[in-house]
Amino acid sequence: MEKRVLTLELVVEQNTKMVERLDRSMAQLTQAMADLRVEMVKGFADLREEIAHVQVELRKEMAADHEKLQKKIDKNFYWLLSVYLTTLLGVLSLLAKLFVDVYAK
Question: How many Å apart are CA 22 and CA 28, to the nearest integer?
């Protein structure tokens, strides 16, 4: 009987040590998770800040590119318009010359 009691006491003592070790491990794990959560929140905040900064830069670049494109389109439009007007002037001059040649005789 005494042997059984000793065995039970030994088992209870071992179980108690294991539970205490598990409690310490859980406390360490909980602390590690809390630390990780803090780091993640800081990392997310840094990431959001970096994304906002990149967005601002991209918007500036897009605005500059849009302005360049608009100037190029305006330049090409005026060039095309001058070509059309020159052609129109040439055609009208030809028609006027033909008119004068035909009806002036």
Answer: 10
Alpha carbons 101 and 83: distance in angstroms, whole number: 27
3-state secondary structure 6-17: HHHHHHHHHHHH
Q: How many angstroms separate the first and last alpha carbons of the chain?
A: 148
Cα 61 to Cα 36: distance, rounded to the nearest angstrom? 37
The per-residue pLDDT for range 51-76, each reduced to its tens digit, is: 999 999 999 999 999 999 999 999 99
Give helix then strand counts, H and E, for the chain.
Answer: 1, 0
CB-hemisphere CA count at 13 Å for 70? Answer: 6
Q: Which of 40, 44, 42 is nearest to 52 (CA)?
A: 44
